[in-house]
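Batch manifest, entry 17 of 40.
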Amino acid sequence: MVELRKTSGLVLAVSGALLLAACSPVQPTQVDKPSQAAPSPTSATPSPPATSNGTPLIPAKDGVARAREYIKDPNRDPLPQDPQLAEQIRLGFRIFTETRRYAPQYVGNDLTCQNCHLNAGQREGALPLVGVANVFPEYNKRSGRLFSLEDRIVGYFLRSMNGANAPGAGARHENAPEEIAPSPRSKEVLAVSAYLTWLAEGMPRGQNPPWRGKNKIADDKRIPVEKLDPNRGKELYGEKCARCHGADGGGVELAPGLKAGPLWGSGSWNDGAGAARVYTLAGYIRYAMPYDAPGSLTDEEAQNIAAYIDAQERPAFPGKAQDYRAEKMPSDAVYYPQLFKTNPLKEKLVR
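Output type: C-alpha coordinates
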Protein backbone atom coordinates (compact mmCIF):
# COMPACT_ATOMS: atom_id res chain seq x y z
CA MET A 1 0.00 0.00 0.00
CA VAL A 2 1.25 3.44 -0.76
CA GLU A 3 -0.23 6.57 0.66
CA LEU A 4 0.19 9.99 -0.88
CA ARG A 5 0.14 13.00 1.33
CA LYS A 6 0.54 16.69 0.82
CA THR A 7 3.13 18.17 3.07
CA SER A 8 0.32 20.05 4.79
CA GLY A 9 -0.86 16.73 6.17
CA LEU A 10 -3.80 16.07 3.90
CA VAL A 11 -4.04 12.36 3.38
CA LEU A 12 -4.02 11.19 -0.22
CA ALA A 13 -3.85 7.54 -1.03
CA VAL A 14 -2.13 5.53 -3.61
CA SER A 15 -1.60 2.02 -2.15
CA GLY A 16 -3.67 -2.76 0.32
CA ALA A 17 -3.94 -3.50 1.69
CA LEU A 18 -1.72 -1.34 1.19
CA LEU A 19 -2.88 5.76 -1.37
CA LEU A 20 -3.94 10.33 -4.18
CA ALA A 21 -5.46 13.64 -4.98
CA ALA A 22 -5.37 17.06 -3.45
CA CYS A 23 -8.38 19.34 -3.02
CA SER A 24 -7.59 20.81 -6.40
CA PRO A 25 -7.10 18.51 -9.36
CA VAL A 26 -3.64 17.05 -9.88
CA GLN A 27 -2.48 17.58 -13.42
CA PRO A 28 -0.93 14.38 -14.83
CA THR A 29 2.42 14.51 -16.50
CA GLN A 30 1.29 11.99 -19.08
CA VAL A 31 -2.11 10.55 -19.89
CA ASP A 32 -2.90 7.92 -22.46
CA LYS A 33 -4.95 9.43 -25.24
CA PRO A 34 -8.53 8.18 -25.26
CA SER A 35 -9.63 6.01 -28.13
CA GLN A 36 -12.47 8.43 -28.82
CA ALA A 37 -13.28 12.04 -28.13
CA ALA A 38 -14.13 12.97 -24.56
CA PRO A 39 -17.90 12.81 -23.91
CA SER A 40 -19.86 16.00 -23.77
CA PRO A 41 -21.57 17.00 -20.51
CA THR A 42 -24.94 16.19 -22.04
CA SER A 43 -24.03 12.64 -23.01
CA ALA A 44 -26.14 10.15 -21.04
CA THR A 45 -23.83 7.16 -21.40
CA PRO A 46 -20.34 8.28 -22.43
CA SER A 47 -17.88 5.51 -23.07
CA PRO A 48 -14.85 5.45 -20.77
CA PRO A 49 -11.58 6.24 -22.55
CA ALA A 50 -9.22 3.37 -23.31
CA THR A 51 -5.55 3.47 -22.38
CA SER A 52 -2.55 1.71 -23.90
CA ASN A 53 -3.54 -1.57 -22.23
CA GLY A 54 -6.93 -1.56 -23.97
CA THR A 55 -8.91 -0.79 -20.81
CA PRO A 56 -10.03 2.41 -19.04
CA LEU A 57 -7.36 1.69 -16.41
CA ILE A 58 -3.81 2.88 -15.79
CA PRO A 59 -1.53 -0.10 -16.51
CA ALA A 60 -0.20 -1.90 -13.44
CA LYS A 61 3.35 -1.83 -14.81
CA ASP A 62 3.46 1.98 -14.74
CA GLY A 63 4.11 1.95 -10.98
CA VAL A 64 4.80 5.10 -9.02
CA ALA A 65 5.53 7.15 -12.14
CA ARG A 66 1.79 7.59 -12.65
CA ALA A 67 0.71 7.59 -9.02
CA ARG A 68 -0.97 10.99 -9.33
CA GLU A 69 -2.89 10.32 -12.54
CA TYR A 70 -6.55 9.52 -13.12
CA ILE A 71 -8.14 8.41 -16.36
CA LYS A 72 -11.36 10.06 -15.21
CA ASP A 73 -11.07 13.05 -12.90
CA PRO A 74 -14.28 14.84 -11.85
CA ASN A 75 -12.29 18.02 -11.26
CA ARG A 76 -11.27 17.98 -14.93
CA ASP A 77 -13.73 15.93 -16.97
CA PRO A 78 -17.37 16.48 -18.01
CA LEU A 79 -19.99 15.79 -15.34
CA PRO A 80 -23.81 15.56 -15.42
CA GLN A 81 -25.56 18.90 -15.97
CA ASP A 82 -27.39 18.62 -12.63
CA PRO A 83 -25.15 20.77 -10.39
CA GLN A 84 -26.09 18.90 -7.22
CA LEU A 85 -25.22 15.52 -8.72
CA ALA A 86 -21.99 16.91 -10.16
CA GLU A 87 -20.96 18.21 -6.74
CA GLN A 88 -21.75 14.83 -5.15
CA ILE A 89 -19.48 13.11 -7.66
CA ARG A 90 -16.68 15.54 -6.84
CA LEU A 91 -17.26 15.02 -3.11
CA GLY A 92 -17.18 11.25 -3.58
CA PHE A 93 -13.83 11.56 -5.33
CA ARG A 94 -12.47 13.69 -2.49
CA ILE A 95 -13.68 11.18 0.10
CA PHE A 96 -12.11 8.36 -1.88
CA THR A 97 -8.73 10.07 -2.08
CA GLU A 98 -8.69 12.01 1.22
CA THR A 99 -10.94 9.84 3.33
CA ARG A 100 -10.09 11.06 6.81
CA ARG A 101 -10.38 14.70 5.79
CA TYR A 102 -13.80 14.41 4.15
CA ALA A 103 -15.39 11.59 6.19
CA PRO A 104 -13.57 11.81 9.55
CA GLN A 105 -16.44 10.43 11.59
CA TYR A 106 -16.29 7.12 9.70
CA VAL A 107 -12.52 6.60 9.67
CA GLY A 108 -10.77 4.92 12.59
CA ASN A 109 -7.33 4.38 11.04
CA ASP A 110 -4.69 6.03 8.87
CA LEU A 111 -5.82 4.65 5.50
CA THR A 112 -7.82 6.04 2.60
CA CYS A 113 -9.90 4.22 0.01
CA GLN A 114 -7.05 4.52 -2.48
CA ASN A 115 -4.64 2.76 -0.16
CA CYS A 116 -5.88 -0.42 -1.84
CA HIS A 117 -7.82 0.86 -4.86
CA LEU A 118 -4.92 2.72 -6.47
CA ASN A 119 -5.44 5.84 -8.59
CA ALA A 120 -8.91 6.34 -7.12
CA GLY A 121 -9.99 2.86 -8.23
CA GLN A 122 -8.61 3.27 -11.76
CA ARG A 123 -5.43 1.15 -11.80
CA GLU A 124 -5.14 -2.27 -13.39
CA GLY A 125 -4.42 -5.09 -10.94
CA ALA A 126 -5.16 -3.02 -7.83
CA LEU A 127 -8.83 -3.83 -7.24
CA PRO A 128 -10.06 -1.39 -9.92
CA LEU A 129 -13.62 -0.18 -9.42
CA VAL A 130 -14.39 1.13 -12.90
CA GLY A 131 -17.69 -0.42 -13.96
CA VAL A 132 -18.30 -2.23 -10.67
CA ALA A 133 -21.26 -0.02 -9.71
CA ASN A 134 -23.25 -1.58 -12.56
CA VAL A 135 -23.08 -5.02 -10.91
CA PHE A 136 -25.17 -4.07 -7.89
CA PRO A 137 -27.43 -5.17 -6.26
CA GLU A 138 -25.36 -8.25 -5.44
CA TYR A 139 -25.60 -11.02 -2.83
CA ASN A 140 -23.11 -10.65 0.01
CA LYS A 141 -22.11 -13.93 1.63
CA ARG A 142 -20.64 -12.36 4.73
CA SER A 143 -23.87 -10.58 5.67
CA GLY A 144 -26.19 -13.17 4.15
CA ARG A 145 -28.33 -10.78 2.13
CA LEU A 146 -28.59 -8.75 -1.05
CA PHE A 147 -26.37 -5.65 -0.98
CA SER A 148 -26.88 -2.37 -2.74
CA LEU A 149 -23.80 -0.41 -3.77
CA GLU A 150 -24.39 1.81 -0.75
CA ASP A 151 -24.50 -1.23 1.57
CA ARG A 152 -21.12 -2.30 0.23
CA ILE A 153 -19.66 1.17 0.84
CA VAL A 154 -20.96 1.12 4.41
CA GLY A 155 -19.16 -2.18 4.94
CA TYR A 156 -15.98 -0.70 3.52
CA PHE A 157 -16.12 2.20 5.96
CA LEU A 158 -16.82 -0.06 8.93
CA ARG A 159 -14.12 -2.62 8.14
CA SER A 160 -11.33 -1.39 5.86
CA MET A 161 -11.48 2.14 7.27
CA ASN A 162 -12.09 0.75 10.79
CA GLY A 163 -15.12 3.01 11.00
CA ALA A 164 -16.80 0.61 13.41
CA ASN A 165 -14.35 1.92 16.00
CA ALA A 166 -14.42 5.56 14.90
CA PRO A 167 -15.80 8.10 17.41
CA GLY A 168 -18.49 9.40 15.05
CA ALA A 169 -19.89 6.06 13.89
CA GLY A 170 -22.77 4.30 15.63
CA ALA A 171 -23.09 1.28 13.36
CA ARG A 172 -21.06 -1.81 14.18
CA HIS A 173 -22.21 -3.95 11.25
CA GLU A 174 -23.78 -3.55 7.80
CA ASN A 175 -27.00 -5.07 9.13
CA ALA A 176 -27.47 -2.28 11.70
CA PRO A 177 -30.71 -0.25 11.43
CA GLU A 178 -30.56 2.43 8.75
CA GLU A 179 -30.99 5.25 11.23
CA ILE A 180 -27.56 4.42 12.68
CA ALA A 181 -24.68 5.98 10.74
CA PRO A 182 -22.91 5.22 8.55
CA SER A 183 -25.91 3.96 6.64
CA PRO A 184 -26.84 3.68 2.94
CA ARG A 185 -28.47 7.10 3.36
CA SER A 186 -25.45 8.86 4.84
CA LYS A 187 -24.22 11.83 2.81
CA GLU A 188 -20.69 10.50 2.53
CA VAL A 189 -21.83 7.03 1.47
CA LEU A 190 -24.08 8.47 -1.24
CA ALA A 191 -21.26 10.70 -2.49
CA VAL A 192 -18.88 7.75 -2.91
CA SER A 193 -21.71 5.89 -4.64
CA ALA A 194 -22.17 8.83 -7.02
CA TYR A 195 -18.45 8.81 -7.88
CA LEU A 196 -18.36 5.04 -8.51
CA THR A 197 -21.54 5.24 -10.59
CA TRP A 198 -19.93 7.99 -12.68
CA LEU A 199 -16.91 5.72 -13.23
CA ALA A 200 -19.29 3.07 -14.59
CA GLU A 201 -20.90 5.29 -17.23
CA GLY A 202 -21.06 3.66 -20.65
CA MET A 203 -20.32 0.16 -19.33
CA PRO A 204 -22.71 -2.83 -19.46
CA ARG A 205 -25.14 -3.26 -16.60
CA GLY A 206 -25.59 -6.51 -14.74
CA GLN A 207 -22.23 -8.06 -15.60
CA ASN A 208 -18.78 -7.93 -14.09
CA PRO A 209 -16.19 -5.86 -15.93
CA PRO A 210 -13.38 -8.13 -17.18
CA TRP A 211 -10.88 -6.84 -14.60
CA ARG A 212 -13.06 -7.64 -11.59
CA GLY A 213 -12.06 -10.72 -9.63
CA LYS A 214 -8.54 -10.89 -11.06
CA ASN A 215 -6.87 -10.30 -7.68
CA LYS A 216 -7.37 -13.90 -6.70
CA ILE A 217 -5.28 -16.92 -5.81
CA ALA A 218 -6.68 -19.89 -7.76
CA ASP A 219 -8.32 -22.53 -5.59
CA ASP A 220 -5.83 -25.20 -6.63
CA LYS A 221 -2.92 -22.90 -5.73
CA ARG A 222 -4.10 -22.10 -2.23
CA ILE A 223 -1.92 -23.35 0.60
CA PRO A 224 -4.01 -24.70 3.51
CA VAL A 225 -3.94 -22.37 6.49
CA GLU A 226 -2.20 -24.96 8.64
CA LYS A 227 0.64 -25.17 6.08
CA LEU A 228 1.16 -21.45 5.58
CA ASP A 229 4.52 -20.22 6.83
CA PRO A 230 4.38 -16.71 8.36
CA ASN A 231 8.08 -16.98 9.26
CA ARG A 232 8.99 -17.43 5.61
CA GLY A 233 6.56 -14.60 4.96
CA LYS A 234 8.50 -12.44 7.40
CA GLU A 235 11.70 -13.08 5.44
CA LEU A 236 10.01 -12.23 2.15
CA TYR A 237 8.42 -9.15 3.69
CA GLY A 238 11.88 -7.94 4.66
CA GLU A 239 13.13 -8.51 1.11
CA LYS A 240 10.13 -7.27 -0.90
CA CYS A 241 7.98 -5.01 1.28
CA ALA A 242 9.89 -3.43 4.17
CA ARG A 243 11.61 -0.82 1.99
CA CYS A 244 8.21 0.83 1.52
CA HIS A 245 6.16 -0.33 4.52
CA GLY A 246 8.89 -0.47 7.15
CA ALA A 247 9.95 -3.29 9.44
CA ASP A 248 7.10 -2.36 11.79
CA GLY A 249 4.48 -2.28 8.99
CA GLY A 250 3.77 1.38 9.62
CA GLY A 251 4.94 2.72 6.26
CA VAL A 252 7.89 4.92 5.36
CA GLU A 253 8.27 8.17 3.45
CA LEU A 254 9.30 7.24 -0.10
CA ALA A 255 9.43 10.72 -1.57
CA PRO A 256 7.94 14.13 -0.84
CA GLY A 257 4.20 13.57 -0.63
CA LEU A 258 4.48 9.79 -1.05
CA LYS A 259 4.19 7.50 1.97
CA ALA A 260 3.40 3.81 2.19
CA GLY A 261 0.37 2.96 4.30
CA PRO A 262 0.21 0.85 7.48
CA LEU A 263 -0.34 -2.89 7.12
CA TRP A 264 -1.03 -3.71 10.77
CA GLY A 265 -1.46 -2.01 14.12
CA SER A 266 -3.95 0.67 15.10
CA GLY A 267 -3.53 2.56 11.83
CA SER A 268 -4.53 -0.34 9.59
CA TRP A 269 -7.72 -2.20 8.62
CA ASN A 270 -9.58 -4.11 11.33
CA ASP A 271 -9.89 -7.87 11.66
CA GLY A 272 -13.30 -7.99 9.99
CA ALA A 273 -12.04 -6.46 6.73
CA GLY A 274 -11.53 -8.46 3.56
CA ALA A 275 -7.77 -8.00 3.81
CA ALA A 276 -7.86 -9.75 7.19
CA ARG A 277 -8.54 -12.95 5.23
CA VAL A 278 -5.29 -14.50 4.05
CA TYR A 279 -6.25 -15.56 0.53
CA THR A 280 -7.97 -12.23 -0.12
CA LEU A 281 -4.90 -10.29 0.93
CA ALA A 282 -2.61 -12.68 -0.94
CA GLY A 283 -4.56 -12.12 -4.16
CA TYR A 284 -3.99 -8.40 -3.83
CA ILE A 285 -0.29 -8.78 -3.05
CA ARG A 286 0.18 -11.24 -5.92
CA TYR A 287 -1.00 -8.85 -8.63
CA ALA A 288 -0.65 -5.32 -7.19
CA MET A 289 2.57 -5.50 -5.19
CA PRO A 290 5.41 -4.67 -4.95
CA TYR A 291 4.32 -1.32 -6.25
CA ASP A 292 7.35 -1.02 -8.52
CA ALA A 293 7.13 -4.64 -9.77
CA PRO A 294 3.52 -5.88 -9.58
CA GLY A 295 3.01 -9.51 -10.53
CA SER A 296 6.60 -10.50 -9.78
CA LEU A 297 5.76 -12.61 -6.72
CA THR A 298 4.69 -16.25 -6.95
CA ASP A 299 1.41 -17.54 -5.53
CA GLU A 300 3.31 -19.18 -2.68
CA GLU A 301 5.31 -16.05 -1.87
CA ALA A 302 2.21 -13.86 -1.86
CA GLN A 303 0.39 -16.24 0.47
CA ASN A 304 3.24 -16.45 2.95
CA ILE A 305 3.64 -12.66 2.99
CA ALA A 306 -0.09 -12.37 3.59
CA ALA A 307 0.20 -14.95 6.37
CA TYR A 308 2.87 -12.82 8.05
CA ILE A 309 0.79 -9.62 7.75
CA ASP A 310 -2.35 -11.36 9.01
CA ALA A 311 -0.46 -12.82 11.96
CA GLN A 312 -0.17 -9.29 13.37
CA GLU A 313 -2.28 -7.37 15.84
CA ARG A 314 -4.91 -5.06 14.37
CA PRO A 315 -8.14 -3.37 15.55
CA ALA A 316 -11.01 -5.71 16.43
CA PHE A 317 -14.22 -5.52 14.40
CA PRO A 318 -17.07 -5.62 16.95
CA GLY A 319 -19.57 -7.27 14.59
CA LYS A 320 -17.74 -10.51 13.74
CA ALA A 321 -20.35 -12.62 15.58
CA GLN A 322 -22.93 -11.45 13.01
CA ASP A 323 -20.84 -12.52 10.01
CA TYR A 324 -21.34 -15.72 7.98
CA ARG A 325 -24.56 -16.72 9.72
CA ALA A 326 -26.13 -17.85 6.45
CA GLU A 327 -22.99 -19.08 4.70
CA LYS A 328 -20.02 -21.28 5.52
CA MET A 329 -17.18 -19.31 7.05
CA PRO A 330 -14.10 -19.15 4.78
CA SER A 331 -11.18 -21.27 5.92
CA ASP A 332 -8.79 -18.30 5.90
CA ALA A 333 -10.77 -16.18 8.38
CA VAL A 334 -7.96 -16.44 10.93
CA TYR A 335 -9.21 -13.65 13.19
CA TYR A 336 -12.66 -15.19 13.73
CA PRO A 337 -13.11 -17.00 17.06
CA GLN A 338 -15.99 -18.98 15.52
CA LEU A 339 -13.33 -20.74 13.42
CA PHE A 340 -10.13 -20.50 15.49
CA LYS A 341 -9.78 -20.01 19.24
CA THR A 342 -6.69 -17.95 18.53
CA ASN A 343 -5.10 -16.78 15.31
CA PRO A 344 -3.13 -19.85 14.11
CA LEU A 345 -0.69 -17.71 12.13
CA LYS A 346 0.18 -15.65 15.19
CA GLU A 347 0.89 -18.87 17.11
CA LYS A 348 3.35 -19.98 14.41
CA LEU A 349 5.20 -16.70 14.13
CA VAL A 350 8.60 -16.54 15.80
CA ARG A 351 9.03 -13.02 17.15
